[in-house]
From TrEMBL:
CC annotations in GO: proton-transporting ATP synthase complex
Topology versus the membrane: Peripheral membrane protein
Stored Gene3D superfamilies: 3.40.1380.10, ATP synthase, gamma subunit, helix hairpin domain
Family recorded in the similarity comment: Belongs to the ATPase gamma chain family.
Name listed for the protein in its UniProt record: F0F1 ATP synthase subunit gamma
């Protein structure tokens, strides 16, 4: 519809030369999710660097306690942040984020408004694969459909042939109502994708940690059994050695006693004893 009409709504077209852009990073509230938050932060840092190299001034918005703590620790200013329920984001969070971003987008440039909106989030593909994506949410990009492979006559060269659209009550009122809801639904969709990815990453991390802990327990059990067996063997060796030593000592004592008795028996009697 936008490609076939003369719509100049700010959400669709924004060409005022404003260098300010907004970047929203969707991170997690809790850890133990592997590289989930670190991947988002790394991609966000790369995006901020690219925007700054292009001469733009990014404004950072962050959702998730881990991301907020990361940037606060590094004294990075945040335009706005939200925390809580990253694993199960509700409509209230989506409304708050979309309202703040739309307000920043609709403001004029001299009042700190932005001309573009980027969202960095994790796309959920399956329980094993999650991919970090950078989505330019605003302005809405119009992609022309490629009809070269279809047997459709080309009507773009005919300036008088255009689809006819009727808006009631008016075009501005319809767009002011529909497009913000569209943006809010897309942001809510990104929140759901990020929540599903966070849960999958945390389950994978916990599964890996459980396997590593089980392997560590088995290894330590084998080492404990080997150490205990060595200790038992050493104790048995000492006991047997002590018993042999006692037997040898008893044998020497018995031999000494026999020799002593023999000497006593073989000694001649004295005169006094004879008389």
């Amino acid at each position: 519809m936008v490609s076939h009409t003369h719509i100049s709504h700010p959400i669709v077209k924004r060409g005022d030369g404003n260098p300010n852009v907004a970047v929203l990073a969707l991170t997690a509230d809790r850890g133990m999710a592997g590289a989930y938050t670190s991947s988002i932060i790394r991609e966000t840092e790369d995006l901020l660097a690219r925007l700054e190299n292009d001469g733009k001034k990014p404004q950072l918005f962050v959702y998730g306690r881990r991301g907020v703590s990361y940037y606060h620790y590094r004294n990075r200013p945040l335009e706005q942040s939200w925390e809580g329920d990253t694993e199960k984001p509700g409509v209230e969070v989506a409304d708050a984020i979309s309202r703040a971003l739309l307000d920043a987008y609709m403001k004029p440039s001299d009042k700190g408004g932005v001309s573009e909106l980027y969202i960095v989030y994790t796309e959920f593909i399956n329980m094993v694969v999650q991919k970090v994506r950078v989505l330019r949410m605003l302005p809405v990009e119009v992609i022309e459909e490629d009809k070269s492979h279809l047997n459709v006559p080309d009507t773009t060269t005919a300036p008088d042939v255009r689809p006819l659209y009727s808006f009631e009550p008016s075009l501005d009122e319809v767009l002011n109502t529909v497009l913000p809801r569209y943006v809010r639904s897309r942001i809510h969709e990104c929140l759901f994708e990020a929540a599903a990815s966070e849960v999958a990453c945390r389950q994978n991390a916990m599964h890996t940690a459980t396997e590593n802990a089980r392997d560590l327990i088995n290894d330590l059990t084998r080492k404990l059994n080997a150490s205990r067996q060595a200790s038992i063997t050493q104790e048995l060796t000492e006991i047997i050695g002590s018993a042999d030593a006692l037997n040898k000592r008893k044998s020497r004592n018995a031999k000494w006693l026999r020799t002593r008795l023999q000497r006593l028996l073989m000694r001649p009697r004295s005169q006094s004893s004879v008389m």
